Amino acid sequence: MKKLTLLLSLCVVFVFIVSCDSDPCDEGYTQIDNGVCVPDYIAGVDQNFELGTEFYHSEYGVITYSNGNWYNENSVLINSLN
User: Fold this and answer.
1) Which of 1, 11, 18, 55 is 20 to 30 Å from the Cα of 39, by its Cα?
2) Whole-angstrom distance, CA of residue 55 vs CA of residue 19
3) Which alpha helices (DSSP H) does the chain contain, by range?
């Protein structure tokens, strides 16, 4: 009986681990390399800077807004965002 209980317990734990979502970020956010979730950049929509100045862009990766300009992760000015 102890073996059966142990086996069932292991099965429950395994199912719980497998069923967990591997993406910890909410919808509209992307997880970057350091594990932080940043908001996705959406072209044509005013960005909410209360969430911070870093956003994820599908083409440029992590982009940062500073002094009225957008910069990529290498601090290179981005002239236009789509």
Assistant:
1) 18
2) 29
3) 2-19
C-alpha separations of 70 from 8, 21, 65 in Å: 54, 32, 5
Residue 33: give the domain boundaries: 25-82
Please tell me the total count of domains within the chain: 1
Q: Are 29 and 37 in contact (CB under 8 A)?
A: yes
Q: Let me know the angle formed at the C-alpha of 63 by 35 and 50, rounded to the nearest 5 degrees.
A: 80
Other CB atoms within a 10 A radius of the CB of residue 63 amount to: 20
* Each residue's pLDDT tens digit, 4-58: 776 776 656 665 555 555 668 888 999 988 888 999 998 888 888 887 899 999 9
Contacting residues for 67 by C-beta, under 8 A, at least 6 apart: none
Bridge partners of 34?
none
CA dist 21 and 2 (Å) reads 31
